[in-house]
Design a protein that fits this description.
Elements lengths: L1 H6 L3 H15 L12 H43 L3 H10 L4 H19 L6 E9 L2 E9 L2 H4 L2 H14 L12 E4 L8 E6 L2 E6 H12 L4 E9 L5 E7 L6 E2 L1 E9 L6 H18 L11 H16 L5 H19 L5 E2 L2 E5 H12 L3 E10 L4 H16 L1
Helix pairs in contact: 2-3, 3-4, 3-5, 4-5, 5-8, 7-8, 9-12, 10-11
Family: Belongs to the EF-Ts family.
Keywords: Elongation factor, Mitochondrion, Protein biosynthesis, Transit peptide
InterPro entries: EF-Ts_dimer_sf, Transl_elong_EFTs/EF1B, Transl_elong_EFTs/EF1B_dimer, Transl_elong_Ts_CS, UBA-like_sf
Length: 392
């Protein structure tokens, strides 16, 4: 009860009374004992007043210092987007010098990013950049979809796509299509203009810096650049698009025209529809002739073994295999597919119709489909399975 009674008193008086009671127990109180002189009482009152003033000053100075520290933590957090615990630790280590702490955070972040670089990153975004007759799509990976929705991550992805437009095809790949890995971009420089990541820096350093901010493994995985002739167009479609130029699945294709035309709008409209079709229908080849012999022979063997299990005659088995191969072509060859929004139309029919509309033959030059994280999990599974297989 005594504690609750004292709790109602001002903090300074409460602390002072505790101090007095402690002094009394030691036998040197100057005013609480019986027979205390008036002079002693006066001195005690002055001492009490001075002590209360000292307690008040100390309490207020500590409160002000704490408020200033919180302000510095907030400022550095806004500057860097680093976790609060790392922000506070850097400020403490740098004696609350915010500029020094920011440099320290960058150093810590790079070390942290290197430590996390081996972790699997299957989430992320595809970013698209286009100019006349050319389009580029890159895949930027992270570990969680929470980071993929971060504005700094999105900003970096779009900046990388714009830079990819200038990548040149120096290899003997399909004309008009250039697929590349991160090594083609890592040493190129970006001029970033974001409140939390700005200035000129290499792409590799920019990715590392964002990884340090996010506290996750972030990596540029791959990209593709597609171009067409001066008479054609390149069209792209992004599925699950959080903002323009970003998505999780991309379809991209080039439409080529034999002669120069004036109805580019009609061509671009059809191109957008077919890019959407590529995302939905997942074609693997442009024409039947483009199906590789290995893929074709493998599929034929599978279909033949399935037909033999029915116990029918060899002639019937061959017919069954041929029929199922036609069905296979309709599934994986874009020129044999039905349009996904209207199965009464084939892709061939759509191209014939637009050819009549623009007054010149139109064909698909190239196409490409990309999805965030595709193939990563199987690669990781095969790596983790190797030591087990060796152990057995």
């Amino acid at each position: 009860m005594a504690f609750f009674k004292n709790a109602k008193q001002p903090l300074g008086i409460f602390l002072y009374n505790i101090r007095l009671s402690t002094c009394s127990r030691h036998g040197y109180s100057t005013w609480a004992t019986k027979g205390t002189s008036f002079a002693q009482s006066t001195d005690t009152k002055a001492s009490k007043t001075a002590y209360l003033y000292w307690v008040s000053r100390r309490f207020n100075s500590q409160a002000a210092s704490s408020a200033e520290q919180m302000s510095l933590i907030k400022q550095l957090r806004e500057r860097t987007s680093a976790p609060i615990k790392d922000v506070k630790a850097s400020l403490v280590d740098c004696n609350w010098d915010i500029e020094a702490a920011q440099k320290e955070l960058r150093k810590r972040g790079k070390v942290l990013a290197m430590k996390k670089s081996s972790r699997t990153a299957t989430e992320g975004l595809l970013a698209l950049a286009q100019n006349e007759g050319k389009a580029a799509v890159i895949e930027l990976n992270c570990e969680t979809d929470f980071v993929a929705r971060n504005e700094i991550f999105e900003y970096l992805a779009l900046a990388l796509a714009k830079k990819a437009l200038f990548v040149q095809n120096s290899s003997q790949q399909i004309p008009g299509v250039f697929s590349f890995g991160p090594e083609c971009l890592e040493d190129l420089k970006l001029n970033l203009d974001h409140p939390k990541i700005s200035g000129e820096k290499t792409i590799q350093n920019a990715v590392t810096e964002v990884a340090a901010m996010m506290g996750e493994n972030i990596k540029l995985r791959r990209g593709v650049v597609m171009s067409t002739s001066s008479h054609g167009v390149v069209s792209a479609y992004l599925h699950r698009c959080p903002r323009p130029g970003l998505g999780r699945i991309a379809g991209i294709l080039s439409l080529e025209v034999e002669n120069e035309i004036s109805q580019l709008d009609a061509l671009q409209k059809v191109g957008s529809e077919l890019a959407m079709h590529i995302v939905a229908a997942k074609p693997l080849f442009l024409t039947k002739e483009g199906v590789t012999s290995d893929v074709l022979n493998n599929e034929r063997e599978i279909l033949k073994s399935q037909a033999i299990s029915t116990g029918k005659s060899p002639m019937a088995i061959e017919k069954m295999v041929d029929g199922r191969l036609r069905k296979y072509f309709e599934e994986v060859v874009i020129m044999e597919q039905k349009y996904f929004l209207n199965d009464s139309l084939s892709i061939k029919t759509i191209l014939d119709n637009v050819s009549k509309e623009v007054g010149s033959p139109v064909k698909i030059g190239n196409f490409f489909r990309m999805e965030v994280g595709e193939g990563i999990q199987s690669q990781e599974a095969s790596r983790s399975a190797e030591p087990v297989a060796q152990a057995v």
